[in-house]
Design a protein that fits this description.
By secondary structure, the protein is α/β, with parallel strands linked by helices. The protein is built from 19 helices and 16 strands. The two termini are about 40 Å apart.
C-alpha cells in the first residue's frame, strides 16, 4: 500500500448521486466535497485544494447559475492560483465561455467521461505545481542590480523586489532602517535598476557636513557669494541632473534647509547661493534615515509637508538580528572576500564562531559584522576563525549544535492558536475557521500544547 499522501481535490456538487459518482471516479485523490457556496469556501480555506471541479447550478436556486458564478468569482479572488474546472450542460456554451472569462481553468460538458476529466484534472495539478515552483524560484532571485546583496531572509527579499518594482518610476523613495543595514547599497541598486542607470549617482550624508556648509554643498554657490567663494560651484543637486541624488540621514537636515529642499521638490528648480537665476534640475531623489521621522515631526524638528514629499514610496529595511540565517550567511561570504584580499588562502569559521555570530544581536548590523569578520581574518593565527578570534566570546548563545524543529513548530502553533482564539473571542468553531483547520484538529492541538 502506497504511503504517498494523496492530493486534495474539491468537488462542488449538490446532487448526492453525482457527488458520489465523482468521488468514486477520482479515488486517486483525497476528494473533498461541498454542496453549496458557503461549504465550498470553507473547504478551500481549510484545505487549499489546488484543483476544484464545480457545477454552476447550486442551492438555493439550483436552476440558476448565479450562485455558481458568485462562487467562481470568490475562488478566483481569494485563491487565484487554484484551478477551477466548471462542469456544464451539453448546450451551455455561453456559460462555459463566461466561466473562462471570469478565471476558470477549463470547462467540461455533462455527461462526461471520467477518464477524460481525470486527464484534465491531472493537467491542472501539473500547471499548479509548475506555477508554485516558478513563484518559489522567483522569490529566491534578486533583481540583477542587487545581485551582490546577500540574503535568504523572506522580508529582505521582499525589499529587493520592491526596489525592482519602483525603480522604473520617478517616485521619491524613503529608505528607513537602522545604521548599517545597507541603505546606500539599496539606493545604488535602485539607481542601477532604473532608466537613469547610465547617469550619475550622487550621494551626500546630511549628518556628516556642518550646517553652515550643507546648503552650499546641496545647492552650490556663485563666485563672490561669500568669503572664499573664488569661483562658481554647482551643488550636489545640480551635479546629479538626469541621474539620482541620494540624501542619506535626511532626518539630520537643518530646519532652515528643509523649506528650501521642499521648494525644490515642488518646483524642480534651484538657485545657487548668491545667484538669482533659476536652474531647472531633473533628478530622482532617494532618501534614507535611521531616525523616526514621525517623532521628529511631533518635536517640531522635521517639516510634515516635506515628509510627505519624500515619502512617496517608503521601504523599511529589517535589522540584521531579524534576518533569520543571514548573519552566518554573510559571515561566510565576508570570510571568503577578506581572505582573498589579504592573501590568507582558504579560511573557515568554526562551529563555535558560527553559533556566536547567530546569537549576537549586531546593533551595528551588516557594517558591524563586516568589520568584525575583517578584523578576525587579519588576526587569526591559522586557517580557522574561532569565537575568540571574532571577539564574541562573551555573547549569549545557545550551546546546542542542533535546532529543535519540534520546539520551534510548537511555539509557532501556540502563537497562532492564541491569536485566533483572541480574534474569535474564545469561540472554538470560529477560531478553527480562522486557522483553516477542523475543530477536532484544534482540540487536539490545544490539548497537546497545554492550552485550555
Amino acid at each position: 500500500m502506497s504511503t504517498e499522501k494523496r492530493r486534495p481535490l474539491l468537488i462542488v456538487e449538490d446532487d448526492p448521486a453525482l457527488q458520489k459518482q465523482l468521488r468514486w471516479s477520482f479515488d486517486q485523490f483525497e476528494t473533498l466535497t461541498a454542496d453549496d457556496r458557503e461549504s465550498a469556501l470553507l473547504q478551500i480555506h481549510r484545505h487549499s485544494p489546488p484543483v476544484v471541479t464545480m457545477d454552476l447550478g447550486l442551492p438555493p436556486d439550483a436552476d440558476s447559475v448565479s450562485e455558481g458564478f458568485r462562487l467562481l468569482e470568490q475562488i478566483v479572488s481569494t485563491a487565484p492560483e487554484t484551478k477551477v474546472i466548471v462542469l456544464t450542460g451539453q448546450n451551455d456554451r455561453a456559460n462555459a465561455l463566461r466561466a473562462i472569462a471570469l478565471g476558470a481553468y477549463d470547462f467540461f460538458a455533462k455527461p462526461f467521461e471520467p477518464e477524460l476529466l481525470t486527464l484534465t484534472i491531472d493537467r491542472a495539478f501539473r500547471l499548479f505545481d509548475l506555477q508554485q515552483e516558478n513563484r518559489r524560484l522567483q522569490e529566491m532571485q534578486h533583481p540583477a542590480a542587487l545581485a551582490g546583496l546577500i540574503t535568504r531572509d523572506a522580508e529582505m527579499l521582499r525589499v529587493c523586489r520592491t526596489i525592482e518594482k519602483v525603480a522604473n518610476s520617478n517616485a521619491t523613495v524613503l529608505l528607513l532602517g537602522e545604521s548599517g543595514t545597507g541603505k546606500e547599497v539599496l539606493a545604488r541598486g535602485l539607481h542601477d535598476s532604473s532608466p537613469r542607470r547610465k547617469e550619475r549617482f550622487v550621494a551626500i550624508n546630511c549628518a556628516a557636513i556642518p550646517d553652515n556648509l550643507l546648503e552650499s554643498e546641496l545647492f552650490g554657490y556663485e563666485k563672490g557669494a561669500f568669503t572664499g567663494a573664488a569661483k562658481t560651484t554647482p551643488g550636489k543637486i545640480e551635479t546629479a541632473h538626469t541621474g539620482t541624488l541620494f540624501l542619506d540621514e535626511i532626518g539630520d537636515l537643518p530646519l532652515s534647509l528643509q523649506s528650501k529642499l521642499l521648494r525644490f521638490l515642488q518646483e524642480r528648480i534651484i538657485e545657487r547661493i548668491g545667484g538669482r537665476q533659476e536652474i531647472p534640475v531633473d533628478v530622482r531623489i532617494v532618501c534614507a534615515t535611521h531616525q523616526d521621522l514621525s517623532t521628529l515631526i511631533k518635536e517640531g524638528r522635521f517639516r510634515e509637508d516635506l515628509y510627505y514629499r519624500l515619502a512617496e514610496i517608503i521601504i523599511i529595511i529589517p535589522p540584521l538580528r531579524l534576518r533569520k540565517g543571514d548573519p552566518a550567511l554573510l559571515a561566510h561570504a565576508f570570510v571568503r572576500r577578506f581572505a582573498a584580499e589579504q592573501n590568507c588562502g582558504n579560511m573557515v569559521l568554526t562551529e563555535d564562531a558560527i553559533r556566536a555570530i547567530e546569537a549576537h544581536s549586531w546593533p551595528g548590523n551588516v557594517r558591524e559584522l563586516e568589520n568584525c569578520i575583517k578584523r578576525s581574518v587579519i588576526m587569526a593565527d591559522g586557517s580557522q576563525i574561532t569565537r575568540e578570534d571574532i571577539g564574541l566570546n562573551h555573547a549569549a548563545e545557545d550551546d546546542s549544535e542542533f535546532i529543535d524543529l519540534r520546539r520551534v513548530r510548537d511555539e509557532a502553533e501556540r502563537r497562532a492558536i492564541v491569536t485566533a482564539l483572541g480574534r474569535a473571542n474564545g469561540n472554538l468553531m470560529r477560531a478553527s475557521e480562522i486557522l483553516g483547520i477542523s475543530r477536532p484538529t484544534l482540540y487536539d492541538l490545544m490539548h497537546r500544547l497545554g492550552l485550555k
